[in-house]
Design a protein that fits this description.
binds 1-O-pyrophosphono-5-O-phosphono-alpha-D-ribofuranose; 3-stranded parallel beta sheet; 30% strand; 16 strands; binds uracil
Amino acid sequence: MPTKRLKKRSGAGSKPRLTLIDHPLIRRDLTLLRDRSTPSNIFRSVLRRVASLMAYQVTDDLNVRRISVMTPLEKTTGFSVSDSVILVPILRAGLGLVGGFVEVLPEARVGHIGLYRDEVTLKPVDYYLKFPRRLRPALVIVLDPMLATGGSATSAITLLREKGAERIRFVCLVAAPEGVDLLARTHPDVRVYTCALDRRLNKQGYILPGLGDAGDRIFGTAE
Ligand code: PRP
Ligand code: URA
């Protein structure tokens, strides 16, 4: 799958830390998601499909162990995933990515972080946390379609670190440069995966061109 490693815009460390997943099928699906006329039911199914496509890239360095398997004809060597993977969607909109990830990672465990962005201050407010045991040494993949100011992602990752998580990745569909910069400063070791790096935020903190309010589009709450 074609990917581009973009140079970090700021923050510590010398390794590029933003991966742009730039596959033709993802570009097509992102266009459907951006389209204001796409109804919630189609939005949800397209988001799930994009999430599965992204999951391949995000997990391309998972460790596997050799196992023996008996085919109908003879014994051979196969593989099982030896890393423990924990998916952590940020409620609400992150839930839209979980189905696509668990489809290709059925052994993953799932935690939840409830956060919403205050409409006036744009600061994240947390209201729910539930994580599986043994966050360390698992690979923890935080899911949220939108990285806007970066406040929600930063706060979610800080909460996970306080509970012991060490190997953390952040997956979004659309990122704004402002959010990428904030994450690079606050959590420079966390790799960010996105399908698009958009232009900027508007005054209300929405990504331009973006796709609007992801939670409302998934759950139909603006209709
Ligand atoms: C959206 C989105 C992110 C957050 C991104 O959630 O799903 O969690 O905004 O913005 P930020 O980078 O500026 O923090 P929202 O706060 O709208 O909550 P919701 O998913 O419950 O609608
Ligand atoms: N949250 C969203 O859902 N969309 C944006 O554009 C910014 C934050």
